[in-house]
């Protein structure tokens, strides 16, 4: 393999998604083994400053395009331009963060460039000059080694699988503007508006996640307001439980997760769901409260560094994954745990 | 209108999947319609109800994939086609996308091709976008609502910063998120109809294409290293005492 590396920095309105910088670690690892230059590319409104931030992580040249046709993310113009830059720079490996945009543009560049795409990679090796990517499959029940037999090799790296490199603020450079490929008239979609996201849940980037399951509704000592029917009362109870979870998460600067049972029962919006049909997360600390630990839930949190389980049932499968377990009621454990940690962290 | 839904058959999400000699096995666990594709079928049927469209469900796979197609028929899809060819053994996502694109072209006059978010076996999440690219159609991914307004499709889609409302000309590829709503259950009538359905099989020759060369191979599949967790159960006389001990342990891990 010969040639250069193109790292796609995923950004919106001048804000890079933090996982974008992790991709540069993967690129440096490969460039050390294989040789070649590393380029960075950022697209969209205010992308110049983001592209220039890449210099502190060690790139040869950063490119950007802030053409009005790229102001709203649309896969077609983003892909067309990414493919063009890759071709012009003789790129043999394209690397993206595994984000909504990253995965999609990577997939479509693979069609344009007749390359092979390996999404959501957690580890890379180089053996006999060939890149071997490791990807979790079957919801992380197995690891597949993947190789691409042609160039370019197209990789998206899983959030938090690679460490963000040390930046060096003394390194800087000027990003070079590239021109958009598609004219507005050639683009068959139009973004007509934005709807609010469901309240700042950034589960996949979180260092700490505190999650609740069906158990959060189970507190017979609570008396719901008298005018509620049974279902409303259950949701009301669950909300009291999620309040305790939210307080611990907020104190730790973390995010709130949930099991599917909690989401399906209407305790909390889907954006919080962790698991096979929710988000895949790997925080440093995952605290599961009132979650049994079904295989589909495990699929989303198994790779967390330290798992803590609080559950009434000593036989709950979640304890098999947990480094620390408390067999008990989340309602009695969480408030003193929040206080005890608050004290120790001096908050 | 003509709608196509692309579905895959996969081992059940609760299957005990293990690697043996670099290959994947799941014992006698059942094969099912990919759970994410149920949302795609639901979206297709919702659009059908709003527009009186024809819905065709297609899959690339072995003979057994007819069962997944039958599930989609039982949910209410009008017809099914299996695309099967020994030459597709070892196909990667790009190859499958190329075959799906050829099948969609052969069906003809298709306005919308629906996909699931990802297949729960390979967890790739790329085939819909790749098929759209081969067809040269706009790709609208992770749609949570879908409406036809005049000759335009209007969808809401989730991206990291929130939801975008996107308007697109037809034809288009749409992948569907869970937010579309719970997939319907097969009806009794639907199950009867599906069980009697005679599902046509198309080969690559029928599509008029050669087998696409797979570019990505999986030379080895391994079991993940066993998680070396020694679980320590924290006990104490009171919740306060337990909480204090647990807090100490968490601090010792240096993750905060
Ligand atoms: C195709 C498919 C996809 C799925 N995807 C997902 C997914 O993405 N994410 C997911 O989470 N699930 C998923 N599931 C569902 C999964 O199988 C389980 O049903 C679900 O995870 C159970 O949620 P739970 O642990 O909250 O509920 P339960 O299994 O009911 O567990 C509740 C737990 O709370 C404990 N408890 C009760 N009261 C208290 C209390 N006061 N204090 C402490 N503990 C208490 C109980 O002992 C019990 O262990 C999926 C299932 C299928 C079939
Ligand atoms: N073999 C297949 N036949 C038909 N559709 C497929 C096939 N593989 C994948 N798809 C579709 O593409 C989506 C994404 O799959 P994947 O990229 O494999 O995760 C799935 O949810 C299906 O809608």
Lay out the secondary structure.
The complex is a heterodimer of chains A (347) and B (256).
Chain A: E1 4-9, E2 11-12, E3 15-16, H1 19-34, E4 38-43, H2 47-53, E5 61-65, H3 75-88, E6 91-97, H4 100-112, E7 116-121, E8 123-127, E9 130-137, E10 142-148, E11 153-157, E12 176-177, E13 189-195, E14 208-212, H5 230-251, E15 255-258, H6 260-264, E16 285-289, H7 295-301, E17 306-311, H8 318-321, E18 324-327, H9 330-345
Parallel strand pairs in A: 1-4, 1-6, 4-5, 5-12, 6-11, 7-11, 14-15, 14-16, 16-17, 17-18
Antiparallel strand pairs in A: 2-3, 8-9, 9-10
Chain B: E1 2-6, E2 9-11, E3 18-20, E4 23-25, E5 31-33, H1 35-51, E6 54-60, H2 66-75, E7 79-83, H3 93-107, E8 112-115, H4 127-135, E9 139-149, E10 152-159, E11 162-169, E12 172-176, H5 188-196, E13 201-202, H6 204-207, E14 216-222, E15 232-233, H7 239-252
Parallel strand pairs in B: 1-6, 1-8, 6-7, 7-13, 8-12, 9-12
Antiparallel strand pairs in B: 2-5, 3-4, 9-10, 10-11
């Amino acid at each position: 393999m010969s040639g250069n590396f193109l790292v796609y920095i995923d950004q919106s309105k001048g804000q890079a998604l933090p996982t974008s910088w992790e991709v540069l670690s993967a690129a440096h690892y490969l460039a050390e083994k294989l040789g070649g230059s590393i380029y960075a590319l950022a697209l969209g409104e205010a992308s110049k400053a983001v592209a220039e931030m890449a210099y502190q992580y060690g790139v040869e040249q950063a490119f950007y395009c802030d053409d009005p046709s790229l102001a709203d993310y649309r896969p077609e113009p983003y892909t067309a331009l990414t493919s063009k830059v890759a071709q012009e720079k003789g790129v043999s490996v394209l690397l993206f963060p595994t984000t909504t945009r990253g995965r999609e543009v990577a997939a479509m560049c693979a069609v344009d460039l007749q390359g092979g795409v390996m999404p959501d990679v957690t580890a890379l090796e180089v053996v006999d000059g060939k890149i071997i990517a490791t990807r979790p499959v079957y919801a992380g029940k197995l690891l597949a080694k993947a190789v691409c037999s042609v160039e370019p090799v197209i990789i998206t790296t899983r959030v938090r699988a690679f460490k963000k490199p040390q930046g060096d603020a003394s390194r800087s450079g000027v990003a070079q503007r590239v021109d958009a490929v598609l004219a507005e008239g050639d683009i068959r979609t139009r973004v007509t508006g934005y709807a609010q996201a469901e309240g700042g849940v950034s589960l996949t980037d979180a260092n700490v996640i505190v999650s609740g399951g069906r158990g959060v509704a189970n507190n017979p000592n609570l008396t719901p307001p008298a005018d509620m029917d049974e279902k409303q009362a259950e949701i009301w109870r669950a909300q009291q439980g999620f309040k305790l979870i939210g307080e611990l998460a907020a104190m730790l600067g973390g995010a709130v997760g949930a099991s599917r049972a909690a989401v399906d029962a209407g305790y909390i919006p889907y954006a919080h769901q962790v698991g096979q049909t929710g988000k895949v997360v790997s925080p440093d600390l995952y605290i599961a409260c009132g979650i049994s630990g079904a295989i589909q839930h495990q699929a989303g949190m198994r790779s967390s560094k330290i798992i803590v389980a609080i559950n009434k049932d000593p036989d709950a499968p979640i304890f098999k994954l947990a480094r620390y377990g408390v067999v008990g009621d989340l309602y009695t454990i969480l408030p003193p745990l929040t206080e005890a940690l608050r004290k120790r962290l001096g908050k | 209108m003509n709608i196509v839904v692309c579905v895959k058959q996969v081992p059940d999400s609760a299957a005990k999947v293990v690697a043996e000699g670099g290959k994947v096995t799941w014992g006698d666990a059942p094969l099912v319609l990919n759970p994410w594709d149920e949302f795609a079928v639901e979206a297709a049927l919702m659009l059908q109800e709003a527009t009186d469209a024809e819905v065709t469900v297609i899959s690339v796979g072995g003979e057994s994939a007819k069962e997944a197609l039958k599930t989609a028929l039982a949910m209410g899809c009008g017809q099914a086609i299996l695309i099967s060819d020994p030459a597709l053994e070892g196909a990667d996502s790009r190859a499958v996308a190329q075959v799906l694109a050829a099948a969609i072209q052969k069906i003809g006059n298709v306005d919308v091709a629906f996909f699931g978010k990802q297949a729960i076996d390979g967890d790739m999440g790329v085939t819909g976008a790749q098929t759209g690219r081969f067809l040269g159609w706009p790709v609208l991914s992770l749609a949570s609502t879908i409406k036809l307004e005049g000759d335009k499709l209007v969808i809401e889609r989730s991206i990291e910063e929130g939801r975008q409302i996107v308007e697109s000309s037809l034809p288009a590829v749409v992948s569907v998120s869970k937010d579309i709503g719970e997939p319907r259950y097969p009806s009794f009538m639907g199950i009867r109809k599906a069980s009697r359905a005679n599902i046509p099989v198309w080969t690559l020759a029928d599509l008029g294409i050669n087998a696409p060369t797979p570019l990505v191979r999986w030379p080895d599949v391994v079991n993940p290293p066993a998680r070396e967790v020694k679980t320590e159960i924290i006990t104490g006389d009171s919740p306060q005492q337990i909480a204090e001990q647990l807090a100490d342990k968490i601090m010792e891990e240096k993750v905060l």
